[in-house]
Amino acid sequence: MTDIEIAQANKMEPIAQIAKKIGIEESDLDLYGNYKAKLGIKKLRELQAKAADPAKRGKLILVTAITPTPAGEGKSTVSVGLGDGLTHIGKKAVIALREPSLGPCFGVKGGACGGGYAQVVPMEDINLHFTGDIHAISIANNLIAALIDNHIQQGNELGLDPRSITWKRCVDLNDRELRNIVAGLGKRVDGVPREDHFQISVASEIMAIVCLSKSISELKERIANITIGQTYDKRAVKFGELKCQGAVASLLKDAIRPNLVQTLEKTPAFIHGGPFANIAHGCNSVNATLCALASADYVVTEAGFAADLGAEKFMDIKCRSAGISPDAIVIVATVRALKMHGGVDKKELKTPNVEALKKGFENLKVHLENVAKFGVPAVVAVNKFITDTDEEIAALQKLCEENGSRAVLCEAWEKGGKGAAPLAEAVVDTIQNKKADFKFLYPTDAPLSEKIKTLGHEIYRAKHVDFEGSSLKKLQDYEAAGYKNLPVCVAKTQNSISHDPKLIGAPSDYVFPIRDVQLYSGAGFVVALAGDIMTMPGLPKAPAALNIDIDDDGKITGLF
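The structure corresponding to this sequence follows.
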C-alpha cells in the first residue's frame, strides 16, 4: 500500500477525543470538521503560562538528520514514529511538526506527513490547504506589498524610493516565472512601474513572524518593525510608518493559533507553521511547541533538512526567542543515504557496500560533532529500508559507537510505534542519564559578520568566509541601526553541508561565499544568502502534480 492508501484506510478518532488525552476540552477548540481543530486563544494562553515554568514542561526531543540525498532519509517518518514509540512504551507524548507547503507537494518532494505506518492524519487535508494558515500568511504578506505600492501611488508622503523596496510578494507554489517581474505597467492609474519579486510563502518574513510570535500584540509589534525599504535620502522605513499593522495582523488572528491533529496510532500532534530551513529558520511555531511542552511528558519536534540547517537555526534562533532548549537530539540517517555520500550511484544502492557506507559516514560524523557543540546529547536513528543488510546496519552502529554515539534501528515506516519503541527507549534513557548542558553557538553581542564566520567555520567547515559585493557594508549598516544583537539565518542549499550542492559527504577547507544579506527586523534575524540559493523554487521536469488525481467522491490519489 502507498502512504496515502495507508492513511485513507486508517480510522481516525474525533479530534475532541484526541484533545482530551492531553487535558484539552472540546470547548477549548475551534473544530475544522471532525478531525482537525485550532486551539482557542484562552487555552493557548493557559498552556503558554504553564510552559513558562521549566519545572512544568515536558522533555523536548529535537529530530534532525544527515544531509539530504535522493535516496531519502525519512525525518518526518521518524519524528511521527518516535512519538508513537514513546506512547507505545507508556509515555505521555505529543508531537509538534511544521505544516507542509503546497510548493513541494506539487513539485519534487511530495507530502510532509511521514510515511508508511508512521503518519499524521488526515494526510490529504494536512498536505493540501489544511486550516488555511499558509493562505492567510500569503494574503497578509501581499497586503503589505499592496499597501506599500499604494502609498507610493498616492503621493508617497514618506518619500519611499521605489528602487529600494525590499518587501517581496509571495505565493505558496514553486513558480520560477515570478522570481523577477516588472509591476505597475499600463496607465498612470495602474501604479508606479518598478522591478518586483516573488518568493515562496514559507520564505516570507510573515511566516517567520507568525512562528515566533506568542500573541496578537507581539504579532503587531513585529509586523510594524518590518523594514520595507529606504527613502530617497537613505533612511530606513518600517512598515509601522504606514500605520496598517493592525489590518495585517487581523488576517492572521487564526493563523497564530496551533492546529491539533493525530497520528495513525492516535498520538496528539500539533502541526503549525512551515518555514523552510534552507531559506528560513525551519521550525514549527513557538506556540505549538509551548503547547506541546505544557501538555505532555515528552515532546517530539522536528527541524527542517539536516543539522547544519534546521537544527542550528532551531537552537540559535528559536530557542533564543522562546526561552527553551532540547533535552536530546535524534539524528536520522539511512544506510542508503550514507552510501550515496560515499559515492554510490542511486541505481546501485541495493547492492551491499560497507566500504561506501564507511566513507559516507563522514557526513553523519560532522552532524554529530555539530550538535555536540550545543551541549545536547544525541542518538542516531537508523531509518531502516528493506534493502539494508545486517552487515551494513552493524557497521553503521559500530561507527557511531566508536564516535561516542548510540545508533538505534528504527522500523517505524513498517511497524509504526512498535517499530520505533527501541528508539523511544534509547531516547528516554539518554534524557535520564545524560543531562543536556545547552549553550548557543555564538554570543548575542558578537558582530554580525563574526556570527556568520562562526557558522561558516564551525558548522559548514569552510576555511574562509567571503563576503561578496555590498554584503559586508550592509551588515555594518544593520549594526549601526541597532541590529547587532540579532541572530543569523543562513540561506543555502540543503543538499550539502557547504553552499555547493555538488559537494556531498563532508566537504571542508573551501571558501563559503555570502553573496547578499537581508534584514528581517520584524522576525528578528538577519538572513545571509550563500551560493546560488533561491527563495522561489522551480518545478522539476516531471513534477509530482503529474501523479495526483481526484475522483467524483472526492478521494485523492497519488499525493505521495
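The mean pLDDT is 96.
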